[in-house]
Write a structure and sequence with these properties.
Elements lengths: L11 H11 L12 H21 L6 E6 L2 E5 L8 H13 L2 H12 L13 H16 L2 H14 L3 E2 L4 E2 L13 E3 L7 H10 L3 H17 L9 E4 L6 E5 L11 H18 L2 H17 L22 H18 L2 H17 L30 H15 L1 H8 L5
Helix pairs in contact: 2-3, 2-12, 2-13, 3-4, 3-5, 3-13, 4-5, 5-6, 5-7, 6-7, 7-8, 9-10, 9-11, 10-11, 11-12, 11-13, 12-13, 13-14
């Protein structure tokens, strides 16, 4: 898509005006017959806010996951650093409490050294819920400039031969040089942000090229996906699927499927390319068909012991956000019903409300089952997406200010 076909937003005020003018978010809590769900969501959000008020003032690094219900931390944020300030921003939007705003800014500021990190594809995860949101809510150009620098670092990972963004490893490291993963689709919105802010179309062009490649190589006829796909980095030739966090190359890691649902829906919002909408719907239809009656995803939909297997509530809340967005852009209300059902299931059955020692909000999450790394623990992105999902229902216009729910 040519940048001339897009509205370039160059000021915080412009961003706010455009979000108000073009967003199609629904009125808060307008669904008929969901008053009971609304009460559940308010209760869950209140609990999350109470937990953050108690824990956040003592947090000086970035939570990565829990051990015996207490956060373990990374000083540089690993790949999850954006979700802690992001959750604080969500709490600020829900409550209006300036303490959460101040804590979010202080936490985001600690990510500043990662702006020039070219060794990872996760710069969207790091900088969109932290720095882009900070700019949209404060207007301070410091945050916009840092996010743009992160986007400039991210596009250095683009492989023009294969039309993909490399997932892992330093640019000088030949290991994994041709590897892409499902998660990357979630990092592309940072590139759309860069094109809108700078007028330079190369950022969005790269995002679209990667998304088109992911469509082609990841999506199976039944709508399921592998976690990994490998290319020859020198020629761009396709080598085949694989996995790291899923059960096998032919299984379907549930969180990766959820990233795809959310990410392809976002790409449709940003480009208007209906093939992205079709892909999001195919991934959604598979995942909804694979869900168990409790509406909490197993860690891998096609692992041999599924559906009677270890759970991953983080996959559920990511999927809920994607489904709520998909319903809005597609006009298909059954996706909204399903998204609300997922959120409600998490709020009713996966919170840490019975624990007196838990630091986190959402339990029953699984980070990397094959490595036996973090099986049914708490994860920072689960807390973030739970709050994002609840705000999509209760305060969509406030959420729009933070993450931009407009369509092009």
């Amino acid at each position: 898509m040519s940048v001339s076909r897009r509205t370039l937003l160059t000021t915080a005020a412009g961003a706010a005006v455009a979000a108000t003018a073009t967003s199609t978010v629904p009125a808060a809590a307008s669904d008929q017959g969901v008053s009971g769900q609304t009460a559940v969501f308010r209760s869950a959000a209140d609990y999350a806010v109470k937990k953050l008020r108690a824990v956040a003032p003592g947090v000086t690094a970035f939570p990565t996951g829990t051990k015996f219900e207490k956060w373990a931390f990374s000083q540089n944020g690993d790949w999850v650093g954006g979700f802690w300030p992001g959750a604080l921003w969500m709490a600020h939007l829900y409550t209006g409490d300036e303490q959460f705003r101040d804590l979010a800014l202080a936490s985001a500021d600690k990510l500043a050294p990662r702006q020039t990190d070219t060794s990872t594809h996760d710069l969207g995860f790091l900088f969109y819920p932290s720095w882009v949101t900070a700019w949209r809510l404060t207007g301070d150009d410091k945050w916009r400039a840092g996010a743009l620098q992160a986007a400039a670092s991210l596009i250095k990972r683009y492989n023009a031969k294969g039309h993909f963004i490399r997932a892992w490893g330093a640019l000088t490291d030949p290991k994994d040089a041709g590897r892409i993963i499902m998660d990357t689709i979630m990092n592309l919105d940072l590139l759309d942000f860069a094109t809108r802010q700078t007028g330079d179309g190369q950022y969005l062009d790269i995002a679209v090229e990667h998304a088109k490649t992911a469509q082609r190589v990841f999506v199976r006829p039944d709508g399921s996906t592998p976690h990994v796909f490998d290319f020859d980095p020198a020629t761009g030739a396709e080598l085949g699927p694989g996995t790291v966090q899923g059960y096998s190359a032919s299984s379907c890691w549930s969180r990766g499927q959820s990233w795809g649902i959310y990410g392809f829906t976002t790409m449709y919002r940003r480009t208007g390319d209906r093939s992205f909408l079709t892909t999001a719907r195919r991934l959604s239809d598979f995942a909804l068909g694979a869900l168990t009656p409790d509406n909490v995803p197993v860690w891998d939909y096609l692992a041999p012991q599924a559906p009677n297997d270890v759970k991953d509530a983080s996959a559920g809340v990511v999927m809920a956000c994607g489904l709520l967005d998909l319903a809005e852009v597609s006009g298909q209300s059954h996706y909204r019903v399903a998204g609300l059902r997922l959120l409600e299931a998490t709020a009713r059955t996966c919170l840490t409300t019975r624990s007196t020692r838990a630091d986190a909000v959402v339990a029953r999450c699984t980070r990397n089952r094959p490595a036996e790394d973090g099986v049914e623990i708490s994860l920072p992105y689960a807390d973030y997406y739970l709050l994002e999902g609840i705000l999509r229902v209760l305060k969509p216009r406030e959420l729009d200010r933070a993450i931009d729910l407009s369509s092009r």
